[in-house]
Amino acid sequence: MRARDDAPMERRMIAAGRRFFDSSSSLLLLCLLLSLLSANNGIVSAATAPLKFGINYGQIANNLPHPAQVSGLLRSLNVNRVKLYDADPAVLTAFAGTGVEFTISNGDLLNMSDARNARAWVAQNVQPFLPDTRITCVILGNEVLSGTDASAMQSLLPAMQAVHQALVDLGLDDQVNVSTSQSVNVLASSYPPSAGTFREDLAQYMRPLLDFLAELGSPFLINAYPFFAYKASPGSVSLPYVLFEPNPGAHDPGTNLTYDNMLYAQIDAVYAAMEAMGHKDIAVRISETGWPSAGDADEVGATVQNAATYNGNLMKRVAAGQGTPLRPDVPVDVLVFALFNENMKQGQASERNYGLFYPNGTSVYDLGFGGASFGPSSPTASGFSSSSKPTISFPVGVVVLFAAFLL
Ligand SMILES: *[C@@H]1O[C@H](CO)[C@@H](O)[C@H](O)[C@H]1NC(C)=O
Ligand SMILES: *[C@@H]1O[C@H](CO)[C@@H](O)[C@H](O)[C@H]1NC(C)=O
Ligand SMILES: *[C@@H]1O[C@H](CO)[C@@H](O)[C@H](O)[C@H]1NC(C)=O
Ligand SMILES: *[C@@H]1O[C@H](CO)[C@@H](O)[C@H](O)[C@H]1NC(C)=O
């Protein structure tokens, strides 16, 4: 997928990289060399094991770099799992041959609940990119069940079923999972974790949804932001507890397990809620979590230091393959939100400041990535080189109003 005459482009990118990252130029050069090698061979660099966490690549912004540059950046960081909020063909094309694993999304649930539309969508947005781009999961809807759109709630399961059937019909179901991501707000009770239950008014949707996920062997995906619990009650929620810093922990009298961080308690509350509906057979994964590096004056805790601590500590735990107290043998699986600060997101200032990177490729804070940068990029053969189109994503409601969590 590489044009042959791109050497001058690479030199320009290296020069640009030096400008961005002169403080760590030797590491940067190493990254660039590795990226060059891997790009030229069309394979992923095998120099180091891929990082275990993935990343959300949101695009609600008008100043993001071209996907080919993003591909270089992610390969230099050794990130090999990415989630999109749509099925942007420019991104899927730019990552062809990289080995990066993609979760793509479709929020048009009413439309997808029709078998013909689901089939047409899969034929147009999934099939043509396989196997060069590794699409492994399609997410239908984002936080629909904690929202207010009744039509979307009713269409959620039919849309998942129709998209799954389309994957079966096209012979792709062994490569591509179907799931949905929900906010932790679908829980009526989350503390102690062993007492986790789903909201009673959602049971009519939740029961058949869980039955379907179990039948497919697909995970249940949740978006969980301990930041929101802290922001809502900074006086009663312990900052070390939400940031994975040393703290006495919270004892769950239902299991006698001790929780030293809120994220794991939220995950185990979802396991308990699923078990209360008869399901011990579905894995919980985190489709979004993160911490903003800045916010409005009334958004307590939104600082660079807290964001670096939250994401850095989480990444260490994920790298160690740690499980939750209730599922110690199931490594916590996380997609961090988000890759870039997104300047066109609505809402409070924190919404535009979840990125690990500014749009120019400079990291917002040091996460121990070393000399991260935009790797060498090249126009792809298929002509997405110049357009830097703002991509329309379906609304991402990351607003999680978490019930006050008392230690
Ligand atoms: C990248 O953007 C950030 C935020 O706007 C800015 O502080 C930084 O100086 C920029 N870096 C470069 C190399 O332009
Ligand atoms: C429904 O989905 C199909 C397949 O992707 C698409 O062609 C069509 O435009 C969609 N309809 C609406 C109303 O969005
Ligand atoms: C689908 O999900 C199951 C259960 O989590 C997992 O074992 C499998 O690897 C997934 N398949 C793909 C293609 O991601
Ligand atoms: C928790 O520990 C206490 C004290 O050892 C014991 O009485 C209780 O039965 C235990 N509860 C569970 C659920 O194991």
TrEMBL record:
Record EC number: 3.2.1.39
Reactions this protein catalyses: Hydrolysis of (1->3)-beta-D-glucosidic linkages in (1->3)-beta-D-glucans
Broad EC category: hydrolase
GO MF entries: glucan endo-1,3-beta-D-glucosidase activity
GO CC field: plasma membrane
InterPro entries, per database record: GH (IPR017853), Glyco_hydro_17 (IPR000490), Glyco_hydro_17_plant (IPR044965)
Domain of life per record: Eukaryota
Gene Ontology BP annotations: carbohydrate metabolic process
Keywords: Glycosidase, Hydrolase, Signal
Signal peptide limits: 1-46
Family from the record: Belongs to the glycosyl hydrolase 17 family.
Protein name as catalogued: glucan endo-1,3-beta-D-glucosidase
Organism of provenance: Triticum aestivum (Wheat)
